[in-house]
Design brief:
Layout (H helix, E strand, L loop, with lengths): L1 H28 L6 H18 L2 E6 L10 E5 L5 H7 L7 E3 L8 H7 L3 E3 L6 H14 L3 E4 L20 H6 L2 E10 L17 H9 L4 E7 L3 E2 L5 H15 L6 E2 L7 E2 L5 H4 L2
Parallel strand pairs: 1-7, 2-5, 2-6, 3-4
Antiparallel strand pairs: 6-7, 6-8, 9-10
Helix pairs in contact: 1-2, 1-4
């Protein structure tokens, strides 16, 4: 049984490598020349294929934005590197990534071709530049996605949302489209295998995912929120509350007299016990 398990994982790793090479070739040879709608369809198909190779069963709830839906910002909680491809398997978007990724072999080139916004975290004012680029993309009818927590969690709690990441939606008067992400077992209980937290390397994370007999990715699209006439803090709070409710988590509470500082609160008991 163990030998068969290793052979299965090896086979899936080979399929994954071929799938990534296919994506790089497609991005280099096709993406510069084809229309945006076709590129988005190809991105969606590739991301869905990645989910199948990793044996991840995607379960979508709610009304997801279609490819014809423009000028929207997807706002989601962040659990894993898989989140990007999970969202893209339904509605491809432009994401924000650290600038170091741009120089990574294959992956960096692919990220560049799909329109990733690269931010230099060592430069204090680089956020303003990226926000300007995101605003411009939204104003042209694009779809961008952000993870306002700013880092990943195990999925059993929700970290405070950073309102600054939603400023481009305010500037371009875009719609905020909250999406709740949760990885689970077949019975619905929380599965931490997909979480990408702490000092876990990408290789270790991938091996943990491949070792799962089954992994379910639950993606819940919530009601969109119009940004017109609203401040970014208000939008961030509305999105945070909506996602917390969908995940049955308790949102963070604000200290009296301080609207910027957030305090962590307890996780819902049924998820803490999962």
């Amino acid at each position: 049984m163990k030998k068969n398990g290793k052979l299965t994982r090896s086979y899936r790793i080979v399929r994954l490598a071929v799938h990534v090479l296919y994506a790089v070739a497609m991005a280099e040879l096709l993406f510069p020349w084809i229309r945006t709608q076709l590129r988005l369809r190809l991105e969606r198909r590739w991301s869905a294929g990645l989910m199948r190779i990793l044996h991840i069963h995607v379960r979508v709830q709610g009304a997801a934005p279609g490819l014809e839906t423009h000028n929207i910002m997807l706002v989601a909680n962040h659990v894993s590197w898989l989140d990007i491809y999970l969202l893209s398997s339904v509605r491809p978007a432009r994401f924000v990534s650290k600038s170091e990724v741009r120089s990574w072999p294959l992956v960096g080139r692919l990220a560049y071709r799909v329109g990733t916004f690269f931010i230099d975290r060592a430069r204090r004012h680089d956020t303003a530049r990226v926000n300007h680029e995101m605003s411009a993309a939204l104003s042209k009818g694009g779809c961008v996605a952000v993870f306002p927590e700013g880092t990943t969690s195990h999925g059993d709690t929700l970290l405070p949302f950073h309102a600054s990441l939603l400023q481009p939606a305010v500037h371009s008067e875009s719609k905020i489209w909250p999406a709740a992400i949760r990885y689970s077992h077949a019975d619905g209980s929380l599965n931490r295998a997909a979480s990408y937290v702490g000092d876990v390397s990408f290789g270790e994370s991938l091996q943990e995912i491949l070792s799962q007999p089954e992994l379910y990715a639950d993606l819940v699209f919530l009601a969109p929120i119009g940004a017109h006439g609203k401040a970014r803090r208000e939008l961030a709070r509305q999105a945070e509350l909506a996602i917390a409710a969908a995940l049955d988590l308790t949102p963070h509470v604000r200290e009296a007299g301080n609207t910027d500082e957030l305090q962590p609160v307890a996780v819902a008991p049924e998820l803490a016990a999962a």
